[in-house]
Amino acid sequence: MRFNVIVVGSTGLVGQRLVYMLSKHPWFNLIGITASRDKANKKYKDVVKWSLDSKMPESIMEMEVYDTNLDIIDSLKPDIVFTALPTEVSKEFDIQLVKKGYIVVSHASNNRMDKEVPLLNPEVNADHINISKLQGNKWKGKLFKVPNCATSILTLVLKPIYDNFGLRHVFVSTMQALSGAGINGVSSMAILDNIIPFIEHEEEKIENESLKILGEVTSEGIKLNESFYVSASVHRVNVLEGHLESVYLKTNKDVDVEDIKKSLIEFKENKIKNLSLPTKPLQPIIVRNEKDRPQPRFDRNEGNGMSVVVGRVRKDSRNWIKFNVLGHNTIRGAAGNGILIGELIAKNYNDIIQ
Ligand SMILES: NC(=O)c1ccc[n+]([C@@H]2O[C@H](COP(=O)([O-])OP(=O)(O)OC[C@H]3O[C@@H](n4cnc5c(N)ncnc54)[C@H](OP(=O)(O)O)[C@@H]3O)[C@@H](O)[C@H]2O)c1
What we know:
Layout: E1 3-8, H1 13-22, E2 28-35, E3 42-43, H2 44-47, H3 58-61, E4 64-67, H4 70-76, E5 80-83, H5 87-100, E6 103-106, H6 122-125, E7 142-145, H7 149-165, E8 167-175, H8 188-191, H9 202-213, E9 216-218, E10 221-223, E11 229-233, E12 243-251, H10 257-266, E13 285-287, H11 296-299, E14 308-315, E15 321-327, H12 331-347, H13 349-353
Parallel strand pairs: 1-2, 1-5, 2-4, 5-6, 6-7, 8-11, 13-14
Antiparallel strand pairs: 3-4, 8-12, 9-10, 12-15, 14-15
Helix pairs in contact: 1-12, 7-9, 7-12
The structure holds NADP nicotinamide-adenine-dinucleotide phosphate (NAP).
């Protein structure tokens, strides 16, 4: 079975990644793309500021860009809508869509912490998908959220460590790429020869969303995992793609560096068996042993941008484990994860629409 899908906000950095990945997807037909009114009724190639290394797919170049409104969506009748809008716009449009009965995979930060809204990082918490049933009281459709980019990368490595050794404290200091700020992101005058030690609301997102992603399914929705806490400090750096995160953590059990590495390498996926989805990387976590890796320029495209790369795993004199983790923010941290969630929905489609 193939599914008809739409990308809302197709001209932005996440939207472009979605469009690119969906243009050659084995399960999804991209039947519509939208942007703001200024760009509507024009060809995609004439209005998009194409920012990917790869060439724009020919099948997309001539597509008409639609205005972002419900009438357009109704006329196209998609099975799944991917939204990649600024939060202020998304918080209204996502809800209009789910009220109307659509299945929505949304990248913006609105509603991420709602108990009955799955916040998915599929290899970590695919089983959270079932709580979408609880939305039946509010909406005809279903809302699924893609986590914050730095959080998707972090929780992928926290999961096997939590499962094997327990967690008490996690401190993370991020070095986040410019593309994380969107297409009009940060001006060159602000970032050249510079590092900016602030990204609005980012620390709270990492701290809170991690506890939801590693949380527990209950009859009332997701219960946050309160057995550990996360404290984050974020920085915008002069790198195009790839967030590097410096992680310090304390486990419940005393553990050796080699045990940590083994648990990361062996990690495949969570409880849902046969999570065979086309966008899922063969090896979600890659561990490198060189003293100076991972690095954004060299490591961000591992697993087609869907794997995260861990390096410099070490232990200090007080038994704190330290390492660096790198992930492609617009793929693993955004569009790639969004499509993986779309695939998980497609696999469970009949259950979800009931
Ligand atoms: N970049 C990342 O790494 C990343 C990671 C995770 C999550 N996110 C989240 O994903 C969302 C999209 O991020 P992005 O980086 O792709 O942003 P972006 O580059 O700024 O793109 C925003 C998109 O939304 C459209 N848009 C803006 N205002 C609109 C309006 N009033 N009506 C209809 N369309 C409108 C834009 O269309 P026009 O071109 O016509 O203006 C564009 O297509 C954001 O909520 C962001 O926080 C981003």
